[in-house]
Structures are given as C-alpha cells and as structure tokens.
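Appendix C: a fully annotated inverse folding record. The material below is reproduced so that readers can follow the format used throughout the book. The structure is listed first as tokens, followed by the designed sequence.
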C-alpha cells in the first residue's frame, strides 16, 4: 500500500529567495511529499541549500534541519543574521580567522582572498567529490556558484556567491563574516596560497630583473612555490583598490 500524500508549506525569508524562481519569491510554497522526510530534504528539494539557512521555525518552535516534517506543517526558513560568527577551528595554532576552499571556477576570487591574507584553497582541476571532502575534513568554508554542491550532507559551512563578478564576490565574502579587521595584506602567495616569508635581497638577487634589482630592497618569498613579491609600482594603486573593497564590505548599522 502506498503511503498517504502529505503537504507542508514553507515560507522563505530574505536572501533565501535568491534560490527560488521569481514567481515563488516571498510567497508560501506548498510542498507535497510521502513518508518520513526531514526539513533539510524538503527545503533542498525546493532549491535552498542547507548551509544558507539560519533558523527554522514551526510557529514559536525552533526546528533543526533533521526534524521530520508533519502533514500540515507551516515552516518558516530564515537566513542567518550578518555578520556570521567566525567558524571555530580545531587548531587555533593555525592562526587563521577563517579558512576557505573554492570551487574550480573561482580562481580570481581565490587570488583576491589571498591578497588580503586569507587562507583560500583552490585548484582548477579539483573535482566536486574532493572539494566536499576537503571542506569537511579541514573544516573549511566552501565557496561556490553551484548550489547543488552546497546541498551535500557533509557540508557544514558554505556560501553560494550571488555575483558572477570576482570583485563583488570578494565584497560578499568579506561582508558575510565581517572580515575587514582580519585582512593582512601581502601575507600569502597569490599563486599557491603559501605563506610569504621575508627574504634578503642577496638571497634572491640572481632571480631579479635588472630594474627590480635596482629600485627595490624589500622582498618576500613564497615558502611553497618560491614566487618572489615586492611592493612595486602597482603597490599604491592596489592599496587604494583594497581600501575601497574593505569599505564596501563593511556593514553599516
Ligand atoms: Zn606560492
């Protein structure tokens, strides 16, 4: 005998409507289902990934994502208040406020995050399975434009970037965790995410172009790939760009 059909109604608040078709935004949505279904399963069947959810309410009662939905339930799905608290880390000795892993389309955003000193793991050949595994195993926040990827059960912390424009994506991420105060420019290698170390000019002299050798005296080198960095002629322009990004990311009360 087939199980009876049940109906629940969901109302998505605020930015969670970004995942819904335009015609369904801001309206209660009826969802038909059979058997034992969790809130997580049903809201994801409607298109909203669980890491984007802040709170679930059934009347006055708070629900967990794993709560079972009953016939006739009216469930409100609320985004988290921003800024989010920084994720807790297993290893405070790492000295990182937050650590990210990015999907393989987000190379520019990864470089931008590294420019601000944030730990941003990225490889252009990384597959979804490995991405999800890395996010779980290393407790990294998964950043992606693929909302299906965020629906994987093991993903605890993740964010679907609304914008397709890297600079705007950067502002979204900085704003979500209010990271402006944690920015530490010129700390990481833009190419590989390695930490930079100060290096004397003598040590790297042979690797410098003649004009660089002539005009600059302070250098940093990536401990992993060996890339050399210095505050060249582009430095001032970059500082101005970084300041405007940080200002744009600040939430004004
Ligand atoms: Zn490097």
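Designed amino acids, in order:
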């Amino acid at each position: 005998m087939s199980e009876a059909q049940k109906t629940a109604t969901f109302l998505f608040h605020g930015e969670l409507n970004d995942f819904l078709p335009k015609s369904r935004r801001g309206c209660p949505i009826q969802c038909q289902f059979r058997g034992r279904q969790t809130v997580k399963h049903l809201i994801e069947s409607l298109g909203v990934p669980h890491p984007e959810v802040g709170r679930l309410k059934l009347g006055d009662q708070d629900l967990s994502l794993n709560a079972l939905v009953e016939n006739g339930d009216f469930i409100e799905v609320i985004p988290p208040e921003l800024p989010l608290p920084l994720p807790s880390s297993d290893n405070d000795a790492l000295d990182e406020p937050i650590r990210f892993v990015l999907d393989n389309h987000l190379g520019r955003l990864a470089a931008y995050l590294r420019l601000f000193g944030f730990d941003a793991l990225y490889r252009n050949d990384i597959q979804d399975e490995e991405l999800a595994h890395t996010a779980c195993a290393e407790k990294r926040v998964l950043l992606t434009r693929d909302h299906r990827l965020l629906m994987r059960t093991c993903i605890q912390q993740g964010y679907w970037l609304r914008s397709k424009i890297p600079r705007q994506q950067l502002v979204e991420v900085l704003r979500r965790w209010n990271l402006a105060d944690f920015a530490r420019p010129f700390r990481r290698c833009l190419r590989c995410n390695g930490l930079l170390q100060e290096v004397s000019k003598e040590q790297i002299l042979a690797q410098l172009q003649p004009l660089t050798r002539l005009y600059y005296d302070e250098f940093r080198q990536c401990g992993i790939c060996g890339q050399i960095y210095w505050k060249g002629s582009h430095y001032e322009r970059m500082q101005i760009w970084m300041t405007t990004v940080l200002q744009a990311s600040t939430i004004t009360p």
